[in-house]
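Page 47, continued from p. 46.
Same chain as before, 211 aa.
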Amino acid sequence: MEFEFLHPNAWPLQACLLNHPPKAADEYDGRYLIHNIIVGRTPEGRTATLSVSLRHHTATPQGIPAARDTVYHARVENYDTATFTGALWTGRDATDSVMVGQIVDAIRAAATHEPVTEALGAAVNALCDLWDRWHNNHLHPGCVHQAPDQGWDITTKLSETPVCPETGYEWGSDWLVEPIPTEVMRALFEHVHTINEEWARVAQPAATGRI
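Result:
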């Protein structure tokens, strides 16, 4: 499946296949987009959905820069960010949320229950892999040279964490961004496309626009 990107890390409107009518805030405006996709149902009959919020950051029309330091100690003027959120819904029209947030394990589990197809389950798990890897890619407290595998963890005082051996950067002194590669953006949309197509095949509500 070929996508025509608007810029090196942009995404095309035609790749954003929503399986229910989007709200006004979900409309693509060239910078911000939300997917709300059905990924399966739990054994209890709850509908599982996954939202992926993507935003391209660049200078504002007023000239205010969006420059950020990266985990690689480079300075970028343009970059994309991704935020993933899962939800479980109940009710006749799946309008009552019973669990929302960083529930990647629950979303993966929903992709193993009938009527999920093998292709649908694989696409959901692949999208969850991207969730694990790229969620809040703009909120890294440390660089690539710092890893909590050197005898310290989240409970360690900031003053006691080792500085970057390359630059002297102090852990937690800034929020660093890890730019999302174009191939990752491409894979994300391919998985979304597969999920929508497969879910439409196995569940009539998705095909008619209802969760």
